[in-house]
Design goal:
By secondary structure, the chain is an alpha+beta fold. It has two domains: 36 residues, no CATH class; 110 residues, Roll (Pnp Oxidase, Chain A), CATH 2.30.110. It is 28% helix and 28% strand. The strands form three sheets. The protein has a four-stranded antiparallel sheet with strand order 2-1-6-7. Strands 3-4 form a two-stranded antiparallel sheet. The protein has a two-stranded antiparallel ribbon with strand order 5-8. Strand 6 and strand 7 form a beta hairpin.
């Protein structure tokens, strides 16, 4: 169990190196004060609404990482509730590496990058694929895009 939300990235090994390199004290103060956000705030929703791409990281059951670019019209990644983000998934190269990884390891990472304004957000969590949920698909799909939603 994590004491601070940042413990997901700042593992014991990372904290040892931070201490050796001199940055641990400032990060420890941050953890005790405000820490990292753990909910989808209105500010995050506004940031996401402008994005037309992000990177999705998953890993196999034994930890082999895989990062995939996801692109679409601005706002295709949506805030569903204060702990859930979602997007409509369309057929791509049909390799299904991300889907396979999520079937055996739900841990996921989103790297949300606004290159134009030099802003970024990192999101750690779990992910799942939802199929045959027409209400969710309708909520996530862009009516102007003609492709068929495979999943959410």
């Amino acid at each position: 169990m994590h004491k601070y939300p940042s413990d997901i990235a700042f593992t014991p090994a990372v904290k040892v190196i931070q201490a050796q390199k001199g940055s641990r004290r400032s990060y420890a103060r941050m953890e005790r004060r405000e820490g990292w956000q753990t909910t989808a705030t209105p500010e995050l929703a506004e940031f996401i609404a402008d994005l037309d791409m992000f990177y999705l990281g998953t890993a196999t059951a034994d930890g082999q990482p895989y990062v995939q670019y996801r692109g679409g019209p601005p706002g295709f990644l949506k805030v569903i509730d204060d702990h859930t983000l979602g997007f409509a998934d369309f057929g791509g190269n049909r390799q299904y590496v991300t889907l396979g990884n999520l079937s055996e390891n739900p841990n996921a990472f989103l790297f949300l990058m606004d290159y134009a304004n030099s802003r970024r957000v990192k999101v750690w969590g779990t992910a799942r694929v939802v199929e045959d949920d027409t209400a969710l698909e309708a909520r996530l799909r862009d009516p102007a895009y003609p492709g068929k939603v495979e999943s959410a």
